[in-house]
Amino acid sequence: MTQLSILLHPDPRLKKVCTQVTNIDDSIKKLCLDMIDTMYKYSGVGLAAPQVGILKRVVVMDCSEEGEKNPIILINPEIVWSSEENTKFEEGCLSIPEIREEIQRPSVVQVKFTDINGILEESNFEGLWSTCIQHEIDHLNGKLFIDYLGPIKRSFITKKMKKYKKDINKK
């Protein structure tokens, strides 16, 4: 498999709404497997296609216990129900490294999606899995977790990321 490059905020592609996958062909299957490898390489628990520059509605995640691997591929995921009860998790993002902020989201969500074999599925996610899928679906809709923060904090993080990108480009 190929490990892909992850786009860093602020990159305009991270703010774009992704298009539906209409055909799960070999290129989509390869993308999914490459995204899983990339997610593991960077020690992430989730990765959305726009984070690797592909504006398609594809997400991979693995919130399994440490040492276990149980990746899930979700194509065209859509939240069809969410609980009224909320949970706060400290979220991070591979596109915004070294930044973590507490974000409040519904505790449980029901998600409709297509798997890599083209089978339509529906699953409930709770705990970290729930936070992760909501975070990744946000990516598909051009939204980052920092968009839930106030404008001053969001601006500070964006400035910090611009400096971070400049610093890594010097290396």
Structure in words:
There is one protein chain. The radius of gyration is 16 Å and the shape is globular. The longest helix has 20 residues, at 151-170. Helices cover 29% and strands 30% of the residues. The protein has helices at 26-41, 128-140, 151-170; strands at 46-48, 58-61, 72-82, 86-93, 96-106, 108-114, 120-126. Strand 6 and strand 7 (120-126) form a beta hairpin. A 5-stranded antiparallel beta sheet has the order 1-2-3-6-7. It starts with 25 loop residues before the first helix and ends with a helix. The chain is built from 3 helices and 7 strands, in the order αβββββββαα. The chain is of the alpha+beta class and 171 residues long.
Main sheet record: 5 strands, antiparallel
Number of strands: 7
Mean pLDDT: 95
Unreliable residue stretches: none
Number of helices: 3
Give the percentage of residues in beta strands: 25-35%
Q: Structural class of the secondary elements?
A: alpha+beta
Strand arrangement, major sheet: 1-2-3-6-7
Relative helix content: 25-40%
What integer value in Å does the Rg equal? 16 Å
Q: What's the shape?
A: globular
Helices and strands, in N-to-C order? Answer: HEEEEEEEHH
First-to-last CA distance:
26 Å
